[in-house]
Amino acid sequence: RDAAAVVLQQQHAAAAATAFSQESVESIDSAAMQSRMLQMQNRINKLESEKTELIMSKAPLEARMRQREDAWVKERERLLGDIDARQAASKGADERYRELEMRNEALEEENSRLRLEARASASATAGDGASGGAAGGAKDSWTERLQANSEIKDLRKELRNKDDEIKSLRIEKVSLETEVFGCKQEIESLERNYDELERDYSELETSKAQNSEAEIQLQALTTEHTAMTAQLNATCADLEEIKTRAKADLQAKEDSWRGRESELLFEMSVLKSRAGKIVQDDAVDGTGGDDDEDDPAILKARIEERDRRISELEEQLQSGEQLRRALHNRIQELRGNIRVYVRTRPFLPSDGSSTQSSIDILPDGESLQIQGKHVGETHSFKFDKVFAPSTGQDLVFDEVSEFVQSALDGYHVCLFSYGQTGSGKTHTMQGSGNAAMRGIIPRAVEQVLSQAALMQSQRWTFTIKASFLEIYNEDLRDLLVNVNADGSTKARDSRSAAKLSIKRTAEGKSYVDGINMVDIDVGDRSTGLSQLESVMAAAARSRSVATTKMNAQSSRSHSVFMLHLCGRNDESGTVVQGALNLCDLAGSERLDRSGASSDAKRLKETQAINKSLSALGDVFTSLANGSKHVPFRNSKLTYLLQDCLSGDGKALMFVNLSPTLQSSPESLCSLRFAQRVNQVELGAAKKRVTYSSR
What we know:
The chain is of the alpha+beta class and 694 residues long.
């Protein structure tokens, strides 16, 4: 009750955990379940506090960034306008200065010409005067002389005017040169201001990048919080159902024991009456009787012995069921059947207020029932494993951990998630955060690192390389193009993105040419996990996602995480080469529900997704029918997974379902597709082991 009270206090503190009532918490009778609920609630509270801190730190950063961006844009526009005006004024001043220079040169030439003409006129006048004196002073010579003197005066006057104009032009030139010098200084000042603004802009870009990282963190925390809340709601619903069934079973057992008690009391009364009669007969005969067999303690001991025997038989039944499952899995492995696991996600806030599920998971953990189109119509299916909505990521990974181990043993292993959009495929494969909500990919790498470290004591040395790609509109894209070989992030360069293509080796094995490989540190587990986090973050930033009516973060491509393993035993010279392919397929969707038909880009993406999934279905159909020709080349997805689906490796498919009634038709199609896949026999997998000299 103390633990339940603590849980209630923490639930009142967390806004997202209000779905848990006091009755559901008090219904938890197991101390282990109470501890788990407390841990999950503490995790939610911590996520809420981190989310609040990120939101509080995000708002002032965004406001400051918007203010500085607006101020920078306005100042930049003003400065650019001033620069343009100054440049235009400087250009006009230069043109005017050149014009004045040309006029000055023309005036100087005119001045020189006039001086020459004046000198010539003066000499001519002097010569004419001498000849006229000799002739007696003719009247025409005197008149010409007067005209020449008048012309000289006019020329001198014009020369003085030209000199004054030249002086004024020189003064104007000096003024213009001063103005041009001032303009140049102002332009230099503006350039300095522009450099400062560029530095401020780079700081804003850095702040914006940091804010973007904070938004990514916030999105991851929000996703983790939503998944945690949904799982808690599903756990609470399961506990309520368990409580209801337990109460019903308890009531039935109580009724049965009351009836049995009445029968035993009646038998005891009959036995007592018989015992009394026997005692009387013995008294008459003078002989004693043995009352031990009729003692109630003996009867109680017999009942307890019978109950113990029943418990032993139930344990034997459970052991037999576990043995049956193990033998079934072994038979499936020998046949090479593709394992099919079904997982139903819990209800999310985006599903609305309805909590009526269209899927009913049976207690055996292998069967389920789903509602059909008509009222009362149900369809039953049975697979290798069926997970309830309350099943955590850790329990899901426990079921597939043996497949991960097979990659270390030298097999090619492929795990892929299939289902409609918004059914939880990416959550199953990648998960969110670094705690309980981690998906199969980070847990698989962690298991590989742990096993590789343990096998070092047996003289095994492993090298692990990771690659991550997506198939977008039938084009291969490297999601780690901005990641170095050691896992560090490098500068973004669109020219560094090489063209990827699927090629085959001389042995007929496929590989992706031009893809970036990241080395995962096997010696230091923490370093290896840190490199994995960098890889996952870089891939998440590069993945093609979009918002549709069915999913706020809908994957618009198929992503394939490839882990290449190579182990060498120095003692025996054995070399194993395994591969682990973890595929997150894009969700199949209907255009009327996703709303993709209104957007040409989304429509093209949807057509490419549905076409590749149809090609995958054709491959499985051909494999199930035993056809000689399997159309692997009809899609980049099937061509990439040919090695895993052609009998050389092991394959497991996750079918993710949405519990809403609106998604029931798509879920039914996914289950029928999974039923066909489960019947495919690939044959026994081949281990890639070679032996070399020591």
